[in-house]
Description:
heterodimer; A: alpha+beta; three-stranded antiparallel sheet; 4 helices; globular; B: eight-stranded mixed sheet; 6 helices; 18 strands
Amino acid sequence: MVQSSVLEALTETSYVVRASHLMATTVQQDVVLLDAEAGKYYGFDAVGSDIWAELETPVLVDELCSALMEKYTGDPASIRHDVMVLLKDMLRAGLIVLCPQ
Amino acid sequence: MTCFRLCGLKVTSAFPLMHLPEWSGSETVPGLEIRAGAVPPLAGARQVSPLLQLADDGCCRFSLPDVASYLVNPDATGVVIDTALPPDASDISAFFFSTVFAIICFKRGWLPLHAASVCVNGRGVLFCGPSGAGKSTLASRFIRKGIPVLADDVSVMDFSDPDRILLRPTLPHLKLWRDIMDQCNIPPDGLTPVRNKIQKYYVPQPNVGRTPVPLSGIYYIGDSRGQGEVCQPVTGVENFMAVRCGVYRRRLGEALLSKAGLFRLVSHVAGRVPGYRLLREKTLPRADALVAEILAQGR
């Protein structure tokens, strides 16, 4: 269980990266993850898959948001908000980790 | 000892195996040997379930009280059956073709799906779903078109070819309810009932395929719940989960292969084989039209 202090530490100046213990596969445009330790599966649609692709190596959250704003049309503030919500969910589920600054 | 054919393997067996065709190939070495013998509990083995043990050396012991204990060797080339029942007792065969067969498949690197399959223009088409979904019923509609049946309850995928997924032919019969047989003009005379006192029969399929064929598509069968028949592609996460849910004896597969191992096989299938969600109505009113659509796709 990820502590709330870790979730609160996630900001746009954080570096995040995929958790190393997960298995991943791409099926058509989606990504499916397996956390074998927890016995849980996760699925991302095309947009989530794009975000997952960006998380292969440590990435600054602010730069992640900028990359997505270049790729997708939409209100920048909404995109930033939605990305932060998704990243918090992924952090809570143990799919990503915060990198030391 | 009698020699049978199962999934392309030459099987020598001390037990009569229900409805398997006799072996007629040129191979002299059996791919699977089934013999009678003592099968005591495996000392120090992991108890995966009340009925199943897994030893560190890869042996599996499946034991069903009052029926038999089955020991599968590490590479699934041999099975020992320990039973007090007569060798031709139907329960021995019935449980061999369920859990023991699944063990053999997983240990050989094959992936069994809870599916009936037919061969359309040299390519395999699967109808996947839980018991009662209508797999055999739908497969029976293809028989009327002279299409060979590859499997009834369990379809077996083989990954030995790097370029395509192959389907291995399994049991050469369909289990059909009497009303479906009546629709197909198949009389029950001389046929073995699946169980006493129910109107469901093993219907031999003499036209069954004998060689593995490439897999071209999987139809996942569900109940339309009166909303009308639907047939639409499934992709991505939905396709992956449909394959995963269709794995025969999935928990057994995870125990034998690990969750990661099964994940890899399921990923392989979902990424390469088109899937379709087929929500059917009870009476299959569009069955013939659906068969025609599938046959047209196979050309």
